[in-house]
Amino acid sequence: MTTGTASPAPVAPAPVRRSRPTWLPDALVVAGYLALAVLLTSAQWGHPWRLFHQAGDQVLFEWMLAHAAHAVVEGENPLHSTALNAPDGVNLMANTSVLGLGVPLTPVTLLFGSQVAFCVAVVSCLAGTASAWYALLRRRLVGARSAAAIGGLICGFAPGMIAQAGAHLHMAAQFLVPAILALVFRPADAERSPWRPGVGLGLLVVWQVFIGEETLVFLALAAGVFALGFALADRVAARRIAPALLGRLAVAAGVAAVLLAYPLWFQFRGPQHYAGMAFAAHGFQLDAASFTASARQTVLGDDWLPGLLSPNPTEENSFFGPGLLVLAVVIVIWLWRRPLVRALAGCGLVFAVLSLGTELRVDGTATGVPGPYRLVAGLPLLDLAVPARFALVCVPVLGMLVALSLDRVRAARRLPAVPGLPVRLLWAGAVAAALLPLVPTPIRVVPVAPVPGFVADGGWRPLVPPGRTVVAVPPVTGAARSPVMLWSARTGLAFPAPGGYFIGPSGPDDPTARWGAPDRPTSVLLRRVADTGVVPVLSDVDRRQAVEDLRHWRAAVVVLGNLTNGDPVRRTVDDLLGPGRPVDGGWMWDVRSLAG
Q1: Residue from 19, 29, 245, 22 nearest 135 by CA
Q2: Helical (H) or strand (E) element with 582
Q3: CA-CA distance, 227 to 231, in Å (whole number)?
Q4: How far apart are CA 77 and CA 72, in angstroms?
Q5: How many whole angstroms separate alpha carbon 409 and alpha carbon 406?
Q6: What are the pLDDT digits (tens) for 323-367?
Q7: Cα 517 to Cα 467: distance, rounded to the nearest angstrom
């Protein structure tokens, strides 16, 4: 009998599981932010004669983007332009010129025009801000990707961000804020040399200045309040990180001072600089009841209540709803032992009360109670700040608190007080209930009169020699809208024009800030006709004044496009300058002989 061993059965190799790229989940989060931003701007894509509801502000920023592209291509000084307010020009460093957005977007502006560039900028601001906060949360504060994603969603798409995005690119563009904070508040065990992070911080500060100085001021104030709160909450940690932090700030200040010396000189001392503000900034404050209300651009929003509780549709910065505020209070109580949470809570509370302005208002009624903002309203920089915008600091505070809470429950399994009830499910339901009423809706649009074909197609070119201007009717007066700025933006600053929507000095010897250029009598006359539709009885004095104003503007042609009261305006201009002739999209008066 022989014994042997059986041959072993062949074993199939285990299937190789392909691991998912580590960057893919992060890319999907960013793609989700981008998709949401595109959806919110969808009412304007492909519709050139629609603007977001605060149309005048969109026209301003379209022009700024067109100017940045024009300056890059032509090699002109980006801090000043004579394409508007001819012959004096506009100090663009002293206005919200968003060069930090316009220069990178130059290819988009040149290829697709100022409207597409504006929409791309809005999408970039919203999605970029959300993505930047997501990255900071994911790298520094939370371990759960889902927690960071929801925190970034709040930071980028809160009602205040949507309200600002439809009009104020400089306030919606907050994608550098997390990067700046990441360099300011580096971990204690990070690289100890202040030079590399300090230089990076200085460069980011310079970039932010060319996007929006107001956001940088709010960031500096918020970072200071947060740092003070954290130092009070954890003095040992504060003393340990203070030397390195101060070193980075010193290096950053030196870098920024060198690079910003000329631009800031130009802003405050250059041509067409001004002093003060063109409007009463203190009047833009929030109602205390706005913090629990629904903003216009949310699924539960309407026009009536927000109109009572905020200065205008673009300043609905505090409409968080009751659910999110209650959730925030619960989170602060729950995680109170963490110094980070105490510092965040203190920072958010300080800026929430400052947004209430100099007098407390509740449900649209002035209470006579002085607001905390009175204590700081006279300080430099703060005397020019819009109080309502302080509430924007609360947006990332709430986003971080929610992210921290979601990350905290990730490791928890069950609530001791409620046997069998999963903590994650309970808390996810609470967060969803708080956030669902804040879901944003597409930004509303309004129609705008098209650029006359005579202007858009260049029919004016043979009539406008170098050094002469195209005068749009009616020329702007004060803060009123003028068609010329949209015409200029949509044609790539093809012609110089008087007037425009900007802030400048009240006169050659008076630097007091005002909207637009100093009024000319003919501007005031034509604006009144455009507003009322009433044709005035003119005198020879009015006609001589019109010629004088045309000479001041160095006018070559006067153009009237589509206006509500276009016929009365046309008849008035006929009486002032003589009969005009119809052109594609409007009327034109050749005034080269009159203006000399």
Answers
A1: 29
A2: strand 581-583
A3: 6
A4: 9
A5: 5
A6: 999 999 999 999 999 999 999 999 999 999 999 999 999 998 889
A7: 19
